[in-house]
Amino acid sequence: MARARTSPLARFAIAGLTALLLLPSVSGRPASSAAPPLPTFGNPTISGIQGFGFEQDLRLDTRGRVYTSVPGSLGSNISYVWRSLDGGQSFKWIPAATQPVGKLVPMCNGGGDTELGTDSADRLYINDLALANYGTARSDDQGRSLTAAPTCTSVLTAPDDRPWYAVDGDPLAGGSITLTYNVAPNATPLSLGACTAATALFSNKLVFARSPVTGAPQSAGLLFGAPQILTQGCDEGIMGNDEVFTYGSVKRAFVIHNNDALNQIRMARCDIVPVTVSLTGYANCVDQLVYENAATVNGGDFPTLTIDRAGNLFAVWEQASCGPCPANITSDTLLYFTASMDQGDHWSTPQMLPTGLSTNVFAWPAAGDSGSVDVAFYGTPTHQACPPCKGPDSTPGDWGLYLIQSLDFTTANPGWTPPILASEHFIHRGSIQTLMGGQSGDRTLGDFLQLRIGGQGEANISYADSNSDTEALASQGMFVRQSGGSSVFGDTPLVHGAPRRVNSVTVTDHPATLDSAGISSPNQPNLEILGSQISLTSDQKQYQVKALVADLRSLAPGVGAQGTTLVWNTQWKVPSTSDPHGGAFFHAYMESVAGAPPTFWVGQNALEFTGSITMTYPGSTQVTGSYTATAPGLITINVPVVAVNESDPVNNLLYSVTTAGMTLNGNAEAVPTLGGIGGNLFNLVDVAPAYDFNPSAPTPPFQICHEADGDGNVNGRNSGTAHFHFDRDRCEGDGDGESVDEQDPGSATDFRSTSITAAIFDDIARTLTITGAGTNAGRLVGFTMVGIDNGALPGVFSLALTDGYAITGSLLSGSIQLF
User: Fold this and answer.
1) How many other C-beta atoms are found inside a 10 Å radius of the C-beta of residue 554?
2) How far is Cα 399 from Cα 659, in angstroms, rounded to an integer?
3) Which pTM was predicted?
């Protein structure tokens, strides 16, 4: 069926203003005479619609699933774990979590530091700290159910602190998990010897512990063996992450850490050996000095480490001058790095990372091929305020999430990109708490962010955004993925992702289920979000917030909805140059109680205490709106601009616009108290991908039924041509199967999809993004496909597989048609 289409010239003008276009494919790194293109990023996604965003962990599995977690509180025994099945486009709690509070069933303990791991068989491992020990669990079905440790004592020491995982292979089939943690100050830590806090700042012991325990492969990720002490005495400050790498026949575990006085950087290393050789499973342990300077302080909060595919080590840390040390910081807090090309025996002279910013914290690196590394961090151009001269803890800045990249860190003078703002806007106003500042700053963001490398060498980052009325108590969990520019993999030199979406997003039909305690409800079509968009009326006095829903013929809760009330909520972020909280998270929603005629509301985010903290979205001002009782149905909410006005916004954009379908009991409306306390806990059923609203760009009408067909040829990755075919038009009823396939003989690639997780349309950029799973020459892979319809000009096809294959380019023949 023919439909009206935007002209090619208009589409290119729009794309030039609002989208990051895909780059043509090349067979290797760009020529050395040309600077490699800078990394670019897609739309930042709200991962923590429920819960909150304090120091998110991040892990990817081999099929491209994304997992994040944050600690709740020790008093609640609750921590939160989220999952994305569409490559980070949308997140919900893992199905094993119990809605609406998020308790992980059947894990014990918890609420303290969290840590995640994934293995080569795509299992998920969870570690949740309590005061005495760790609650641990493993999921063999990607978070639907959990096998928990039989007791609440997963390790043989207590009290313990800060767990990190390094997973090697498949721990149930010969692999292992190395747990690094601190044994905290204590009087009787079994056989390790006593540490007391009276003579030092922290008095920690640093240890490795290995899982599974001897002769019990099913204990993998649940129980850990005897601890291997890594440090002399009790001189451990706090460690960063651990890593495992195989050098020939020798497998080694590494952990970077600082000393108790915070003026040394050290690297502990052990060989992983059979327990017949060593009771702990580790041998030949050393603790190497990497850097020492008594006139400096580091530890904001800890040094971090990555290992590239060639086995080269790269370490980065925060550092400032001090005097007297460590109480008085006399310089800006900068980032320093060093590298080792001989497994940590020797390190290059530390160099300052050229961030171009005055104060930097929470650096996290992730490496690819030899010498290639990304480093993510929070940074601000603001200098510390003195007194009290506490570094980041006394720096009242506007902090953004930045990334810097090097493709030659093993050389004497590595080249670095300028700092790239991955978060679109600053994400925190105020100070940041660190160890080096005596833990006197604002701890809303926690103690770290995380960066992981995906299948095509792209950066994936979990972080937090605190710019709202709840800034003093809680941040919102966020995730962003690199969408273009240089990757850290030489055989996939450019990242191939979708353009940044503006003003509108639509998706095809998909399951919308309420997942709780391992059980999924039947599909909830009246909460299945098929699209979201915002427009501004011609008089610029009203936003029209619209949501396309699969079926609005009934507003009554369906079977398994676990609530009397249905809510269709759209939220967005407005950072401000003058608001002391940094900005606002606004939202608008339609609400129906027990199927009754709906009401329409706007408000700001709030939070409720459940022992832990979880976000709520109460309405404070009733507005007008309408809906169509059709399938699909359209919700329209008329939002006066003055009702969602923020003082001195950084610009006229609305960021990370996200629409979700929810259920709850009672009403969502509430008037939060001072600090944003209030609202009603909700169950999350469905979430649409995020976009930004730009009033200078047009908002197209919804396409109720999208048709997408592609068939053609592009240049092959190595030689020759690659042929592709895709079809995504279930509602057209043309009888074609929904699928994506591509054959590239020059690279021995034969890809065929087996399932489609999400199909996302951008009606402005005329782009379709499909994610799912399939096989490449028989090997199981995840995939992301992007097709761009350029009208009369050749379209663009892109395919990225989680085994590292990626290709993109303009069509040599054939066509891509999106209607």
Assistant:
1) 15
2) 26
3) 0.93
